[in-house]
């Protein structure tokens, strides 16, 4: 009995040392969360296999519904957890609040509390060692590596200093966070499956391919491009002294979130960009809800503020399209 126990202890230590050695070989500064890393890897592998085997043939209704769910989840991320709850860029009435909660749950992310905390720390300590997805640690880390590793002590300590009272004091958000796992399962997996199979008449295998894998992973990775691609490639027309950039490709994927240099310059602005900026479906949707009275107190930087910052700190790539002014390059 003692011998078996001793052998098990030796085996455990050896396995731990093996993991540590592997972490060092990858150059990771933080310890890998092996349970999360393995789960994410397996989800991707299974998703590729399942989609290859069952995604086609698919009904056009399935493809349309998948796109609709992609856009719905995207709105929950861009307008909901990002602009309403993280930055308080505008306010919403109860019906729109409930829609945003359902939309966010359909994206299958972390709880609103965790998402908001990570994002507020990111903005306050952007691209430093206190940033959860510091872009200076490389494209892989800022995209997905930060989710596979434990947060360093600086990120954790700075996170404890962030005021989250607006989230914890909101009774609706408290209820949503308490039962978030159930809401996520319902809106991200169960309801899309039920609608696609029992209302649209798709096979369950094809439904799983499009809803649980293709749609979910598309939303997951397009959101992460804001942390990675929009902190690496593009211009800096508003502030060349920060890492975030303007990236048209990211804007196309995320309905306007790629105007990231603007966003970090004016994080409270609900538009995340200027009037003429890249494809910004989120801003158009918020404007629609504002017109019908469901969204209000929209915050935005004034043209004078934007022009002043771009002239002082920008890289010279901003085009001034103010009314009655010919487009010109700001130097």
Describe this structure in words.
This protein is mainly α. It has one domain (28-317). It is built from 15 helices and four strands. The protein has helices spanning 2-26, 34-54, 60-86, 94-106, 112-124, 139-148, 153-159, 165-168, 171-178, 180-199, 204-224, 248-254, 260-265, 281-291, 303-313; strands at residues 91-92, 295-296, 319-320, 328-329. The strands form two sheets. Strands 1-2 form a two-stranded antiparallel sheet. It has a two-stranded antiparallel ribbon with strand order 3-4. Helix 3 crosses helix 4 (94-106), helix 3 (60-86) packs across helix 5 (112-124) and helix 4 (94-106) crosses helix 10 (180-199). The longest helix is centred in the first third of the chain and has 27 residues, at 60-86. Mean pLDDT is 91; it is low at 9-13 and 324-331.
What layout of secondary structure does this protein have?
Blueprint: H1 2-26, H2 34-54, H3 60-86, E1 91-92, H4 94-106, H5 112-124, H6 139-148, H7 153-159, H8 165-168, H9 171-178, H10 180-199, H11 204-224, H12 248-254, H13 260-265, H14 281-291, E2 295-296, H15 303-313, E3 319-320, E4 328-329
Antiparallel strand pairs: 1-2, 3-4
Helix pairs in contact: 2-11, 3-4, 3-5, 3-11, 4-10, 10-11
């Amino acid at each position: 009995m003692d011998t078996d126990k001793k052998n098990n202890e030796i085996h455990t230590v050896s396995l731990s040392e093996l993991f540590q050695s592997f972490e060092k070989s990858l150059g990771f500064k933080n310890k890998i969360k092996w349970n999360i890393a393995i789960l994410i890897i397996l989800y991707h592998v299974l998703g590729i296999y399942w989609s290859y085997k069952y995604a086609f043939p698919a009904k056009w209704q399935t493809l349309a519904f998948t796109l609709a769910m992609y856009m719905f989840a995207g709105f929950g991320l861009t307008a909901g957890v990002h602009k309403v709850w993280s930055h308080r860029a505008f306010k919403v009435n109860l019906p729109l609040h409930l829609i945003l909660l359902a939309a966010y749950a359909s994206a299958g992310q972390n709880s609103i509390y965790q998402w908001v905390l990570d994002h507020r720390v990111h903005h306050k300590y952007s691209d430093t060692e206190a940033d959860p997805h510091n872009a200076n640690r490389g494209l892989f880390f800022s995209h997905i590596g930060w989710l596979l590793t434990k947060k360093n002590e600086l990120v954790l300590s700075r996170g404890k200093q962030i005021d989250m009272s607006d989230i914890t004091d909101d009774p609706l958000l408290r209820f949503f966070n308490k039962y978030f796992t159930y809401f996520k399962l319902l809106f991200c997996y169960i309801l899309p499956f039920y609608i696609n199979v029992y209302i649209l008449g798709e096979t369950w295998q094809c439904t799983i391919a499009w809803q649980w894998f293709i749609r979910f992973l598309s939303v997951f990775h397009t959101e992460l491009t804001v942390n990675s691609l929009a902190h690496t490639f593009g211009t800096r027309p508003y502030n060349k002294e920060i890492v975030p950039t303007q990236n048209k490709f990211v804007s196309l994927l995320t309905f306007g979130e790629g105007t990231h240099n603007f966003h970090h310059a004016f994080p409270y602005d609900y538009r995340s960009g200027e009037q003429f900026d890249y494809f910004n479906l989120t801003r158009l949707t918020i404007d629609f809800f504002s017109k019908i009275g469901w969204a209000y107190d929209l915050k935005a930087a004034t043209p004078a503020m934007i022009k002043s910052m771009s002239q002082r700190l920008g890289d010279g790539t901003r085009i001034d399209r103010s009314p009655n002014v010919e487009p010109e390059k700001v130097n």
